[in-house]
Amino acid sequence: MRSNQPALTNQSAQPRVGVIGGGQLAGMMAGAAKALGLKLIVQTANATDPAVAIASQSIIAGLDDLQATKKLAAQIDVMTFENEFIDLTALTPLAAAGLCFRPCLKTLQPLLDKYKQRTYLQAIGLPVPQFAALAAGQNPLEFGFSWPVVIKSRRHGYDGQGTFVIGDAAALAAFWQRVKLPASEPDQAFLVEEFVPYQQELAVVAARSVTGEIVTYPVVETQQEQQVCRRVIAPAAISDAIATQIAAIAQRLLTELDAIGVFGIELFQTADGKILINEIAPRTHNSGHFSLDACPTSQFEQHLRAICGLPLGDCTLKTAGAVMVNLLGFEQAESSYPDQQQQLAKLPQTFVHWYGKTQSHPGRKLGHVTTLLDTADRQAALDAAQAIEAIWYGDRSRS
Ligand code: ADP
Fold it and tell me: How close is the Cα of 195 to the center of ligand 1, in Å?
């Protein structure tokens, strides 16, 4: 099926790519662009942001600086994103004037607000946890939920920052006391959903091309601590039936969205083998970082291939397994941790990716490490992750 979306803006021989955002995802995309011989320009707030050193060019301006986006638009053939903090209303006139966004704004429209995303997924028949919009001060028990529940910011949450597990009435009262409600539309700030007692968290990265071809990377297990991704095991230990079900979810979703580019799909698997979608990220995703070293085509190259109208690449695993560990900040510091980086690089079949951030603070994603494995055994992946974390965190406990 061919997508009926706008063509590239200027149709240069080699499409020039604009990215609104300049963090590590844009940085890794810029690395892939170099390898493909594509020009990539980022718009990002600070000259020290990770993508600036790697991109062909940068426009230093806030992501919501529309004048800067217009300047960027004049220099590129296709505009893409590295995060979901997108102001669709502001960008709509640019799309109307012929700027080619991939994914397009219509694709993004149902995904940027977590409540609208859940509503959309449910409407197209995909499995989601029970959920409801939550007005300011409201008690979820009023509409049939029981403790614990999960309250989420509808917009601008990341790395669990907008996700709150609420165990009882006292915790709910404390939550409403401490939360800062937005001045406009305070009743549309949160949603509530059932707490899913998942057996494991899974994720899949999928890509769709302009011709409607869809490819999916292997389904992975993701492990979160305090709602932040700590490690990713590829492939996940799941049955063929579950893998097929997840591939079908990806296929249905990307087709229905008329998506172009790479999308991350986070899932819960329950003890009785049910699959529920946690979240769709309309962009490259942390759960796909292993693909840089473990697959012939990384998710970053794949995204560029998809949005530039190139044929999609091979996303199978080159080895039997792989494990990716996020290097999270554990202190307030200004350091690139050269000793730890050197020690990590000495581990067998191990690749260190440092994002070049100049400031570390607890929980900040500073880099990641991938170890390739000659087995798909889950325990071997956990052991390899443990070796990485022992070097990175030292005797600071894995909190
Ligand atoms: P973010 O968008 O900030 O990453 P998520 O909604 O993905 O936030 O939540 C982060 C983590 O919180 C999830 O990976 C999961 O571990 C936990 N979580 C989120 N929603 C639920 C839920 N309904 N039930 C149980 N755990 C949840």
Answer: 9
* Residue 9: predicted pLDDT: 66
Ligand 1 site residues (CB inside 6 A) read: 129, 150, 152, 157-163, 193, 195-196, 201, 224, 227, 266, 278-279
The verdict on residue 311 lying in a domain is yes
Which residues have C-beta within 8 Å of that of residue 42, sequence separation ≥ 6? 18, 19, 20, 21, 22, 26, 30, 49, 51, 52, 55, 57, 58, 59
- Measured by CA distance, the residue closest to atom 18 of ligand 1 is 227
Q: What are phi and psi of 72, to 5 degrees?
A: -65, -45
144 Rama class: left (phi>0) / alpha (psi -120 to 50) / beta: left
Determine the Cα–Cα distance for residues 152 and 217; give it in Å rounded to an integer: 28
* For the CA of 152, the nearest atom of ligand 1: 6
399 vs 293, 330, 343, 378, CA distance in Å?
27, 10, 22, 21
- Residue 399: its pLDDT value, please? 46
**Closest C-alpha residue for ligand 1 atom 15:** 227
266-303 exposure pattern, b = at least 16 Cβ within 10 A, e = fewer: bbbbeeeeebbbbbbbbbbbbbbbbbbbbbebbbbbbb
Residues 69 and 160 in one domain: no
4 in a domain, yes or no? no
132 phi, psi to nearest 5 deg: -160, 155
Query: Which pLDDT tens digit goes with each residue over 296-324?
Result: 999 999 999 999 999 999 999 999 999 99
185 and 209 share one domain:
no
Please answer whether residues 283 and 302 qualify as being in contact, where contact means their C-beta atoms are separated by less than 8 angstroms: no
218 and 342 co-located in one domain: yes
pLDDT of residue 217: 98
Residue whose pair of structure tokens reads 């590295």 in the numeric block: 82
How far are the Cα atoms of 237, 341, 361, 398 from residue 388, in angstroms, in the given order? 21, 10, 19, 12
pLDDT at 12 over 50: yes
Ligand 1 closest atom vs CA 281: 2
